Amino acid sequence: MLILMHMKELKIVKDNNSLLRLKSSDVTLPINKEDEETILSMMKYLKNSQDENYRSTHPNVREGIGLAAPQIGVLKKMLVIHFFREDEEVTRALVNPKIVSKSAKKCYLKSGEGCLSVDNPHEGFVFRDFKIKVEAYDAIKKQNVSITARGLEAIVLQHEIDHLYGILYYDHINKMNPLFAPEDFIQL
Ligand SMILES: [Zn+2]
Class of the 18-187 domain? Predict the structure, then answer.
């Protein structure tokens, strides 16, 4: 039987691989075909990961809402996020994302964060800026974008941008007091 695959199956780099600790390079714009295909295949992977039927036939695939290029072994500043906020789909494929401003207000996920590259649980809160402004090139919209993100979207973007600098979410957890949070931090 011959199976033709347009895109090879992406393999997620795990946190035992030091590649995840390296800093990614800027992508040259305008984006070339190869980089465009890479980021679109990342989006495809992420959407598939949210499909229960797909996961049932791909047992190594875990559900995610964000993915950064280093996680597929590509050290370039590219990330994708995809999730639903009420009825609205949040879908972004960002190239060279840059946080240009952030709020003083902090937030965190009550359940802690997770990561497709991290199989072992790391209990503890990860404090993030509640509101950020990000500038980037969006490979789906095919234009430069300026995004004001709050709450979950801000958290996911900060998590993925961290990957572009070799930072993992558990680096932020206070080892001495992992489940302490100041009262004025917003719990999501
Ligand atoms: Zn991650």
Answer: alpha beta
